[in-house]
Amino acid sequence: MRNVGSGERRKQLLALFALLLLAGFAIGGPTGVLAWSENLTALDQREAQIAQLTEKRDALRNRVMLLDPDAADPDLASELVREQLGVMREDEVVITLDEK
Asked: What is the CA radius of gyration of the chain?
């Protein structure tokens, strides 16, 4: 049997410690095996949020296209002017509804 010197023994223990540390991070670290389910849940939430924001972006894009200065939708332009500026014609009557 070979007699291992104290320096070499120390190197082996240090290597073993480093290997165990890496294994610990691989299992329990922020990107380890135990964090996969949390990461998958976060991914699902982000994908749902992206879908919602994509839908909102598409609606805004449609509204912008309707407000194109060269071919604005008259109904939308009239609605925006009335809403933003409070402008109405003399022959119009305003009826307010209580929102519940």
From this structure: 33
